[in-house]
Design brief:
The structure is a single chain. The chain is an alpha+beta fold. The protein folds into 3 domains: about 300 residues, Electron Transport, Fmn-binding Protein, Chain A (Pnp Oxidase, Chain A); about 100 residues, UbiD C-terminal domain-like (3-Layer(aba) Sandwich); about 120 residues, no CATH class. About 30% of the residues lie in helices and about 15% in strands. An 8-stranded antiparallel beta sheet has the order 5-8-9-14-13-10-6-7, sandwiched between helices. A 5-stranded mixed beta sheet has the order 16-17-18-20-19, sandwiched between helices. A 4-stranded mixed beta sheet has the order 1-2-3-15.
């Protein structure tokens, strides 16, 4: 996607339409719960959703832009697996040479400026069933430090109270709260702009942790680094705080220090409700917008985890690679709400560095509650693999790090790496990599494909080919087992029958040995025992049981040719009966021929 498109939501919608990644809802939907309910039902799919007809509103609503990482990858023109690495590289490049946004006199957001403010003209939905009211969830707030004039961007939740009043649910301890304290100390109001539909580049930059901007550059410059083109701003009309030139709407707001009101509850990204808290009150003094705008909303849940977690893990990766040698990758897990649990992959170079990575990760992203560090042979995006590392390599006595009374609460880290230097007992079992498409596999799923190939190969080697006429009338399949071209019962019965009907005193060549089985039932052991028993019978060392045949074995005339198994239908069952009798008291109880486990 072109760089300037990442600043322009209108261009993004057009490109989503062209690429088949946009779904359109043309039925009437209500802003209260219905729109969000439908968006949540469609969430996680390959498409963003545009609600064209919102009851009582003029303008459409876009949701699901961050419903999945695959969709975000398509917006950024990257592979899904490399998203964090791509964004980390952008963060690192911007830290080395902080870029700045540009300020222009005109922009699309100024197409429909009006001094009268009415937030009811913006289609702002109510999301969760217990939300306190409609709120802005995708608006980027731009504020300035009252002392230094440095700009800062964030994405606070803003509850709409009436036509010109908002309650700002900003995080305590962040830059916004710091600016508000400084404004109060200086005896002045704090101004900010709320930019709705500002584009993914600015939204991702606004969600980056404070550590990403420690180089002292303007945080809005990171949006330009992500998009590949500087962010364009237009000057405010009520204050010196700028607005995003390509936003769909921009609200100029004044906050009087010391004025607070109850805000919430709201559905949070972690999947639970926030509690009602006293938050700053913002008065909207002027409203700007495009001539034909689209409202953008972000649902709490998967969307929050994707957009916030993605830039969070990218920022942590950039910070760790700068501070901790050997760090290869970082993943914020879905099970950790995409925000609170980071898994760090490291190629150990010195003892103790995994614990350094734990501490650095917490410093890089304060919302984190858990950090797990694993070796570079562990797939950090596979929860099963990570759990294996914790079970096999974590030493609970020395590998668990707890940090009490930290910002954001108590934190815990797990060093699930093997000891350094590496020892042989911690090496993972490895197998030769094979491409399944190179093999002909019938009647087996991918998990059993390798075993099916081995069995097929053994059948080709061990089983002699029957004439076509004989193959048309095979021995009955054992109950409970699926029939197939390879039937072990039929092959073994045929081999025994051919051996027994051979000339008296003439040793028939033994068939090729079967591959050893991996169960208590040993096919080779049974096969050898049967052949030895028949050989002893022919040599007169053991009398034949009466149940075996009406004629003694030595008196049987030699057959000039070996008849097909179809001519002796009862023979296999007599062989089974004999085998069962001869194995009385043996370790093998003949369960294979009685339909037991093979």
């Amino acid at each position: 996607m072109a760089g300037n498109s990442l600043h322009d939501l209108g261009a993004i919608i057009g490109e989503l339409e062209t690429s088949g990644r946009l779904a359109r809802v043309r039925s009437d939907v209500d802003l209260r719960h219905e729109l969000a309910g439908l968006a949540a039902t469609l969430e996680g799919g390959p498409r963003a959703v545009l609600f064209e007809r919102v009851r009582g509103q003029r303008w459409p609503v876009l949701a699901g832009l961050y419903g999945g990482r695959g969709l975000v990858a398509s917006l950024l023109g990257q592979e899904e697996k490399s998203l964090a690495t791509f964004l980390a590289a952008r963060v690192a490049a911007w830290q080395r040479a902080p870029g700045q946004p540009t300020v222009t006199k005109q922009g699309p957001v100024l197409e429909a400026t009006a001094p009268d403010v009415d937030l009811g003209k913006i289609p702002i939905p109510v999301h969760a069933l217990k939300d306190a009211g409609p709120c802005l969830t995708a608006a980027v707030a731009i504020a300035k430090d009252p002392e230094s004039g440095a700009r800062h961007a964030s994405m606070p939740r803003c509850q709409v109270v009436n036509r010109d009043t908002l309650h700002i649910d900003a995080d305590a301890g962040g830059a916004f709260a710091t600016y508000l304290e400084r404004a109060k100390r200086m005896g002045r109001s704090l101004w900010l702009t709320l930019n709705i539909g500002a584009g993914p580049a600015l939204q991702l930059a606004a969600l980056a942790p404070a550590s990403a901007a420690e180089s002292g550059g303007d945080a809005l410059g990171l949006a330009g680094e992500i998009a590949g083109i500087p962010l364009a701003l237009v000057p405010g009309m009520e204050s010196d705080v700028e607005m995003a030139a390509d936003a769909m709407w921009a609200l100029e707001c004044e906050i009087v220090p010391g004025e607070f009101a109850p805000t919430g509850p709201f559905g949070a990204g972690a999947g639970s409700y926030t509690t009602a808290e006293q938050r700053p009150v913002a008065h909207v003094r002027r409203m700007h917008g495009r001539a034909a705008p689209v409202f953008h909303t972000i649902l709490s849940g998967a969307e929050t985890r994707t957009c916030a977690g993605l830039i969070g893990e990218a920022s942590v990766l950039a910070q760790l690679q700068r501070l901790v040698p050997g760090v290869r990758d970082v993943h914020f897990t879905p099970g950790g709400a995409g925000l609170y649990h980071a898994v760090v992959q490291i190629e150990q170079q010195r003892a103790g560095w995994p614990k350094q990575a734990i501490l650095a990760a917490f410093a890089a992203y304060p919302p984190l509650k858990m950090v797990t560090v694993v070796d570079d042979d562990v797939d950090i995006r596979n929860a099963r693999d990570v759990e294996w590392a914790m079970a096999a390599r974590l030493d609970p006595a020395a590998g668990i790090v707890t940090i009490a009374k930290a910002f954001g609460g108590c934190k815990v880290g797990f060093d699930a790496t093997q000891p350094f230097p590496k020892r042989a007992e911690y090496e993972r079992v490895a197998f030769k990599a094979v491409a399944l498409e190179a093999y002909e596999i019938v009647g087996a799923d991918a998990m059993g494909a390798a075993r099916a190939v081995a069995v097929s190969a053994a059948a080709d080697v061990a089983a002699p080919r029957l004439p076509v006429a004989a193959a048309a009338d095979p021995a009955p399949a054992r109950p409970g087992r699926p029939s197939s071209d390879y039937d072990t019962d039929r092959i073994w019965q045929r081999e025994l029958a051919e051996w027994k009907t051979g000339p008296v005193g003439e040793a028939a060549p033994a068939p090729a040995a079967k591959a050893a089985a991996t169960t208590d039932w040993d096919e080779n052991r049974w096969w050898k025992r049967e052949l030895e028993e028949l050989k002893r019978e022919r040599e007169g060392r053991k009398p034949a049981p009466a149940a075996r045949s009406a004629k003694p074995a030595p008196a049987r005339p030699p057959a000039p040719t070996r008849p097909a198994p179809a001519a002796r239908p009862a023979e296999p069952r007599r062989m089974e009966a004999q085998a069962a009798e001869s194995r009385a008291g043996d370790d093998d109880d003949g369960g294979f021929f009685r339909g037991g486990p093979a």
